[in-house]
UniProtKB/TrEMBL annotation:
Domain Major facilitator superfamily (MFS) profile: 1-366
Coiled coil residues, start to end: none
Membrane topology category: Multi-pass membrane protein
Keywords: Membrane, Transmembrane, Transmembrane helix, Transport
Record has Transmembrane helix as a keyword: yes
Protein name per its UniProtKB record: MFS transporter
Compartments, record wording: Cell membrane
Membrane-crossing segments per the record: 12-31, 52-71, 77-98, 110-132, 138-160, 180-203, 209-231, 243-262, 315-335, 341-361
Native organism: Apilactobacillus apinorum
Length: 371
């Protein structure tokens, strides 16, 4: 309904309200779907299920540019939202048909204060990041909001660790297989959210290609996501999680940074190939992370751990576009426009160094319980 409201909005204010409702509803869907899977899947089956879990998050940012470009070029912008209506109705029918009714009722009190604290802290960070994209004049205000959000996280941590019935239990962070997804995995999600956007804007702004043509190349990220899927389980079972993650993260880092070298005269197959390789690396890395992250968390504690993971993942995805926009904007003060974008690709590649180091120091049998 919110997507329909977006398409039919008579004013910008109504559009903003509809988008807010759409974001609120969307934020409930991903953790709920993952929780249904986690509560019914033993640790040794998480690898198989992770393949299905990763697809939606990878597919959407990859195919959105080409679909959006098609709608803008041949139809109207309203179709960007109208396309969600039949998809939403289909999802409702599938949910009614396949999802079992939950007869259990929780007796725990809802931690409203914890919810409010998290909403404020994440709101400060995301709003600050968005304001920072408007230009250097807004950076002091944006920096202050982000700083307040980060300080608020300390308040959230103290509250969750001391209240009797917290919104979610943070003790799952003591488990290394869970913790590395919340730290190094967050860096990966920043890149996952930023790369399709950066490549699309780069091809349009610097190469002066149409949105539709740019979308054709970005969709190869999605093709890479899908193309590697039949082999992910074989790769992981053959060389285990640690080696698989290192290969995947190195692949993402190198292929992303290599996009800085493309030019309007570069053969299209090279641009498509780099996007494809990046998609393969992203897909393999996220499959590994999703399979491992809950493998050592008891089933009865996965609800709480899933909430924590979803909050961090959602923030990382939202920050990805804002972060790379600010980076490119800052670089444009010192470099020509094309070089600013090129350094932006290198920056996204460098982001992978932290998760690479984090995985490298893990024991050789890391994630063995999920095989």
């Amino acid at each position: 309904m919110s997507s329909l409201g977006d398409a039919l909005a008579p004013s910008f204010a109504v559009l903003l309200v509809s988008r807010f409702i759409q974001g609120f509803a969307g934020s409930l869907m991903t953790p709920t779907a993952r929780l249904i899977m986690l509560e019914r899947t033993p640790s040794n089956q998480l690898l198989r299920m992770a393949n299905y879990l990763v697809w939606p998050a990878l597919i959407a940012p990859a195919i959105a540019p080409i679909i959006g470009g098609f709608f803008v070029k041949y139809l109207t912008w309203q179709w960007i939202f109208l396309i969600n209506v039949p998809i939403g109705l289909l999802a409702i029918l599938i949910g009614i048909k396949l999802v079992e009714k939950d007869s259990k009722k929780s007796k725990d009190k809802f931690d409203f204060l914890g919810f409010l604290e998290i909403a404020i802290s994440s709101g400060f960070i995301l709003i600050g990041a968005e304001i920072a994209t408007y230009g250097r004049h807004f950076w002091p205000v944006a920096g202050l909001l982000v700083l307040l959000g980060l300080l608020m996280i300390l308040v959230v941590g103290y509250h969750l660790s001391h209240v009797a019935e917290p919104l979610f239990d943070i003790k799952a962070l003591k488990v290394s297989s869970f913790r590395i997804y919340q730290t190094g995995g967050t860096f990966l999600w920043l890149s996952v959210g930023a790369l399709p956007y950066l490549l699309t804007v780069y091809l349009q702004t610097v190469f002066h290609w149409s949105a539709l043509v740019a979308g054709y190349y970005v969709i190869f990220v999605f093709i890479g996501n899908i193309g590697i899927k039949p082999f992910t389980n074989v790769i992981i079972r053959s060389i285990k999680y640690k080696a698989s993650l290192l290969i995947a993260l190195f692949t993402v880092a190198i292929s992303t940074a290599a996009l800085a070298m493309i030019r309007p005269t570069t053969f299209g197959v090279i641009i498509a190939g780099l996007a494809f390789i990046s998609g393969c690396g992203r897909s393999l890395a996220l499959t590994c992370y999703n399979a491992v992250t809950f493998s050592e968390i008891p089933i009865e504690e996965r609800n709480s751990a899933n909430t924590l993971s979803s909050v961090l993942q959602t923030m990382a995805q939202g920050l990805g576009v804002s972060l790379i926009t600010v980076v490119v904007s800052a670089l444009s003060s010192f470099f020509p426009e094309n070089q600013s974008y090129e350094i932006g690709f290198v920056f996204l590649g460098i982001l992978m160094l932290y998760p690479i180091i984090e995985v490298a120091i893990q024991p050789k049998n890391f994630g063995s319980s999920a095989l």
